[in-house]
Every structure is written in structure tokens, then in C-alpha cells.
Amino acid sequence: MDIETLSPSDIERRSMEIIESEMGDTSRLSETEKLVVKRVIHATADFDYLDNMRFSENAADIGLEALKNGAVIVTDTNMALSGISKPALKTLGCEAVCFMADEDVAAQAKASCMTRAAVSMDKAARLFGGKNVIFAVGNAPTALIRIHELIGEGKLSPSLIIGVPVGFVNVVQSKELIMSGSTPYIVAAGRKGGSTVAAAVCNALLYQLYERK
Amino acid sequence: MDIETLSPSDIERRSMEIIESEMGDTSRLSETEKLVVKRVIHATADFDYLDNMRFSENAADIGLEALKNGAVIVTDTNMALSGISKPALKTLGCEAVCFMADEDVAAQAKASCMTRAAVSMDKAARLFGGKNVIFAVGNAPTALIRIHELIGEGKLSPSLIIGVPVGFVNVVQSKELIMSGSTPYIVAAGRKGGSTVAAAVCNALLYQLYERK
Lengths: 213, 213
Known about the structure:
The structure is a homodimer of 213-residue chains.
Chain A: H1 8-23, H2 31-44, H3 48-52, E1 53-55, H4 59-68, E2 72-75, H5 78-83, H6 86-92, E3 95-98, H7 103-112, H8 116-128, E4 133-137, H9 141-152, E5 160-163, H10 171-180, E6 185-188, H11 195-209
Helix pairs in contact in A: 1-2, 2-11, 4-11, 7-8, 8-9, 9-10
């Protein structure tokens, strides 16, 4: 196999063409949902996400609306935060934050025997409880579980939950919890997911609203 | 399915037990290689990596030696950089860097029609050419291709190349290039990989040398 000489934008277009040609039947997906799934496959080269990605009704379009209206994206890892397009956020008047490395979060986690991920969701609820917030959880099921509890307690009403933690313990359950709720969600059902998937879902939405140079 | 109440360290131990029990035959792997593969599966929930992960002779142990001797890890994304354990790096006297967002790299990429990833490898060669350096490439095949060229030009002699870019264009070829060379490598053969995989390989090695609290 020879190496193809292509510009970065051509590489991405060619990649998306390959993904499209190998995806098979995508009739269950809306246009926006399909863009999300394609970008997740682009980030993982894993076509399992074609089946795994679950969207509550109009969730992807609800996400677009939230971003048009300056949403704050809260992640559960600095890695996911690092992967979300900063130029797109800036242009749209959105921001992305992660509280995992904050000292107050670490201290409260230690004192309360909660995970830092769960405590960082409490911090998000205090700061953005009634605001236009999107959660993008790529790592910690405890973050998803805490979001579900905070919604139940009336302390949070997110515009969208992107629930794509990866792993083997409590991951499937935490995603089922989110899919049982009434908050719009984009979830990677099963064990798979991760910070790259969380960032890819965010970027798929952002890139619909922002033309990259 | 009920949610299990476990501490973070218990969750990780339990996760590794599940991975171990589902991995099947691992007799082709050394002990250190197995730890690398397990951590990659832990980061992706994708057992394809059991077959995909390729190690040149003693590469995992060579990586451990490099880290014991204060290696610099160069990544091709800030996302991978963000996922590598900072406490472990600090304790071992190692550091991790990424030049992708540097202004001089952006300017040179524009001027030379190279990708920023490739140019950032040139910068690494200038700064660390003869030093103990580990490359951890989770995104850009052009980074791997440039590393291969720089080695050929005598401008780089890395201790280890972690070659795990993800994608559909030039990714497989770039990995084959690295596997055809004489520099120790850990490669995820095929299309799969990513920044989380790059970070997981680094952390698998770091955690052998550093006891987490």
C-alpha cells in the first residue's frame, strides 16, 4: 500500500467517504445523528458505534440549538476538554470546562468518599444548575450517576447529556440510567466510549455550526 | 443490573479482572506486554487490541528502561499529553510535551505545506535528537512518517515509538513503515488507535514504575 499525498482537509473528506461507504444501512439515523456517528467512527475506526450510538428524540438537534445559544460544555476529563474545538467554541460564544483537577473538588471527594468525577458534577450544578449546560462524560460512570441524581433533586436541568463513558464496572448501568430519564441524551450503549468519543460527539455538533478553515 | 459500590481503586482492580477473564489466550505476550494490552483494553473496552498490539522485541521493557532513565515523551496531540499521568512523570523525572499548538509549528507548517504534526516532529528532533525520547503518536500518520524520515536522516534516534494513530487514510501504511524500521516500537496494527490508546500505553509503562495512591 502506498502513502497518499493529501492535504489535511482532503484526508478528512476522504476518511468520511470511506466511513460512509462502509457504514451500511443508516436509515435509522437523522442527518445530524449520522454526522455524529460518522465523527465517532472517524475518531475510533470502530464501526460498532453505528449500532451503539443512541439518541433520544431530536437529541442531536437539541444539542445544536443549545450550542447556538451559548451552552457551557462540562466534561469529566481534561482529556475530553482538550479534544473539543476551541475555535468553534469561541466563535459560537460557548465554553467548555472540566473541574476534575480542581483542588476544592479533590478535597471534597476525599472528605465525602465520593469520586472526584461525581463531586465535579456537584460543582457544575452549583455553577450552572439552571443554565444551558451540556454534559460530555467520556470516562466516569459515577459522573453520569451523579448527574441523574442531581436532576432528580431539581439541582440540574441540562440541555443535553452526552453519556459515553468506557469500561467494565457500572458503565452499562450508568448509561441505562441516563436513557431511562427524560433529559435529552446521546449515549454509546454498552461498554465502549471514552474521552475521544465524548470530544467527537461535541465536535460533530460544533462543526455543524462552525466552518473550519 | 445493579450498580456496584466500589472505590476507584477497587473499580480498576475489578475492571482488570474482567478484562483478564475475557482476554483468552495471551501466551504470545510477555508480562509487560500483557499489562500494556490490558490497559489499552481498559481505555477502549475493545478486545480487538489483543490481536492488534504489536511489539518489536523487548519493546515494552525497553520503554520501561527509557522511563527509568528520565525519558521525554513527545505526543502528537494535546489530548494524549493530557491523558498521561503527571504524578508518575514527575516522580520518575520524566516529562511529556506536545508541540502541536506552538505558533512556530503552525507558521512553519503553513510555509512548508507540511502538516503541523509532521513539523512538530521536526521540532522534537531539533530539541531532543540525540536524547532519550519516546514518541507517542495517537492521531497523525504524518507524524509517524516524519519520524521515520528523521531517523533515516540521522536526526533522531528514539528509545521507543508508540505508533497508534487512528483512521482511514495512510494510517495502516504509516504503522507498517514504523514496523519495517529498526527502532523499538509498540504499534496498534490496522486502523484503530487514538489519543486515549497512546496515553494508555504510556501509563501502562509508567504505572509499572510508579505506585499510585
